[in-house]
Each structure stands twice: as C-alpha cells, then as structure tokens.
TrEMBL record:
Protein's name according to its UniProt entry: Transglutaminase-like enzyme, putative cysteine protease
GO molecular function annotation: peptidase activity
SUPFAM superfamilies for the chain: Cysteine proteinases
Annotated SMART domains: TGc (SM00460)
Record InterPro entries: Bac_transglu_N, Papain-like_cys_pep_sf, Transglutaminase-like
Organism: Rhizobium miluonense
Pfam family, one: Transglut_core
Keyword entries, A-Z: Hydrolase, Protease
Transglutaminase-like domain sequence ranges: 157-221
C-alpha cells in the first residue's frame, strides 16, 4: 500500500519567545515492512542545527529559535510504501542492547494493577501471551481522549480504565516487561478507515519474541500493525519517541495545533488527525 502523509505542527506563543531548542522525530526510515519513497521536513520560525540518529535508531532533527518569535511551523510530508507482515518487524539491531527494553521508565512501571492483569493471561507461548495481553488491555481500558496526558502512567490509566493509544501502549509495555519480555514504544501514523478529525496521532508497542524478533501489538485497536501503519520512532516510552520535544526560554504559554492527513493512493481514502 502506498500512503501519502502530511503532518503540520504549529506553535503560537502567547508572547514572543526568546529561545527554544526542539528535537524533531518526524522522519520515517526505510526498513522491514516500509519503504520511504520521498520525505521532506521543513521548519518556519526556527533554524535547523544538526541531524543525527539517536541511541534507538530514530532520525532526529535538532532546531533552534533565537530571538523574538511569535510562531513556529513544522511541516513533514512524503510517501511511504507499506506491507502487511502481521506486525513482524524482525530481529533486534542497533547499538541499544536488547536487555535495556526490560528496564522500567516512570510511565511504564508495573504496579499492582499491571501485575493483576498479567496474572490472568492465558497462552502456551510468549507470542500467545502477548496477544492475550493486547486483547485484555483493549477490553479493560476504554479509548477516551481527554482523560490522560503525556505524563499519565500505565497504572493511572488502568485505574481510570480510560486513555488514548499512548496509554494502551504504556500498559502493554509494562505488562510485557513484568513477564520478562523486552518491549518498546512506537510512534507513527495510522490510516483509519472512514474516520476524519481524529483526536490523536498513533502509538503502539512491540515485544521481542524468540524466533520472530520484534512483533507489533496495537491494544487500542486490538490488532497487530498491518499495511496501514507507518513507524517513525521508538524508545522505552513516549518520552523517547514523541514527535516534538524540547525546551523554551521566555514568557510561558503557547497554543499547539497539529494537522495530520494520511491517504492511500490505491483506495483514495484520507483522514485528518490531531496529535496528543
């Protein structure tokens, strides 16, 4: 499937800002299951400083704003050809050791509710248990925008029984690691059939299964990623893979607007989304 993607992020500052430094993880890479045909990242109101691959293999563009500025506009566009591989991404590669993905982060610390969830899982293999975990999260935590934020932990989302795809991914990661299965967070794009004005860009998780390598699981939709999904960045949790992160010096206050469109050239379907 060939997907055409447009992602616009705009910050409007309540007062002219003096300085900001931002990391942009907005460049998908060619890999198993996806081929980037073309991709362009442009920034208005800030200057690119350097581009590099971080410890997780994410392509990062560092941009800075120095001087009085009222807005920053970031535009990422391109085309990606995808395949349906039933979520299988393949063996672990890169400088980050596999054991690191067993380490807890504040958002993925397994507490009482996570451990109760994993104790009820059935399955005679790691793969079967991960499928059971995905389905259990989908049934237990309602997709409900506005009930969580970027600092919400897996335990808090389980207690509230609601959240967004980011929370579903964090719960899955916490549960997998509690079972001593390496897991990681994935941020990316999803073409959603027949839906416009979506409340969030997408996030899911991957678990490392012996013999298969990394396998994707999307508890928000209770499916393994297929040709509708495009991977952009990965890490231990949201903090490592979020599309835009950084710091700003100056008068606090900003308005963030994000518009994402994803269209299949073969089917002519498109959507608009907002980033959480």
């Amino acid at each position: 499937m060939k997907l055409t993607i447009s992602h616009i992020t705009e910050y409007r500052y309540h007062e002219p800002t003096q300085f900001s430094l931002q990391r942009l993880r907005l460049t998908p890479l060619t890999g198993i299951g996806q081929t980037v045909s073309n991709w362009k990242l442009s920034v208005e109101g800030a200057s690119p400083e350097v581009e590099y691959d971080d410890q997780f293999g994410n392509r990062v563009t560092l941009v800075s704003l120095d001087g009085q500025q009222e807005a920053t506009r970031i535009v990422a566009t391109g085309e990606v050809e995808t395949q349906d591989l039933n979520g299988v991404v393949g063996q672990h590669v890169g400088f980050t050791p596999l054991w690191l993905f067993l380490r807890e982060s504040p958002r993925t610390k397994a507490g009482k509710l996570t451990k109760e969830l994993t104790r009820g899982l059935s399955g005679d293999s790691d793969l079967a248990r991960m499928h059971a975990l995905m389905t259990a999260i989908h049934k237990s935590v309602e997709y409900k925008p506005g009930t969580s934020d970027t600092e919400t932990t897996a335990e808090q989302a389980l207690e509230a029984k609601s959240g967004v795809c980011q929370d579903h991914a964090h719960i899955f990661i916490a549960g997998a690691r509690a079972l001593q299965i390496p897991a990681r967070y994935i941020s990316g794009y999803l073409m959603m059939e027949g839906k416009n004005e979506q409340a969030a860009t997408h996030a899911w998780a991957e678990a490392h299964i012996p013999g298969l390598g990394w396998v994707g699981f999307d508890p928000a939709n209770d499916v393994c990623p297929d040709a509708r999904y495009v991977r952009i960045a990965t890490g231990l949790c949201y903090r490592d893979a979020c599309p835009v992160s950084g710091m700003r010096v100056g008068t606090p206050g900003e308005t963030l607007t994000v518009k994402v469109s994803v269209a299949s050239q073969g089917q002519g379907q498109s959507q608009s989304q907002s980033q959480s």
